[in-house]
Amino acid sequence: MTDKKQMRSAARFFAVQALFQMEGAGQTVERVVREFEDHRFGEVFDDYEMAEGDSKHFRALIDHAVNWQARIDQMTDRALVAKWPIDRIDPVLRALFRAAGAEIVAMDTPPKVVITEFVDVAKAFFPDGKEPKFVNAVLDHMAREAKPEAFSA
Q1: N or C end of the chain: which has fewer CB within 10 A?
Q2: Which has the closest alpha carbon to 69: 117, 96, 101?
Q3: Where in the chain are the domains?
Q4: Which residues pair with 44 in a beta bridge?
Q5: φ and ψ at 86, to 5 degrees?
Q6: Taking every annotated instance into account, which residue ranges of this chain make up the domain NusB/RsmB/TIM44 (predicted)?
Q7: Cα–Cα distances in Å, from 122 out to 39, 133, 150?
């Protein structure tokens, strides 16, 4: 039995995959959400079983990422180095910033938890790269802009 924290972590991972797939394949929110809930949650790959995702959290991340995309992308752009606008970064990272941005902007999760969770997602997608540190820096900047009160000592 997976606990709620694990299910939320899985939902974040799946949200990044779903947003990536929506952008890459031009699929609708409804189609991608249905596919993930019906087929991806709990899927088994070569004896490795994917965790069961928290469906409510997954849907909220996707909905907020779509509804707040312009604001999230602008926040991401401000957090990125000027030479690297969001449309030039890796599409997996773009999806990750949108999912994390959705949770920072539109949900009650403490920003530091969001950052930690999505750095872990980055480690899953880029186990040997510098991306997790990059993700940490960008999300920290975004969170401080969106919810500065969470960082006041």
Answers
A1: C
A2: 101
A3: 4-146
A4: 49
A5: -55, -35
A6: 10-144
A7: 22, 9, 23
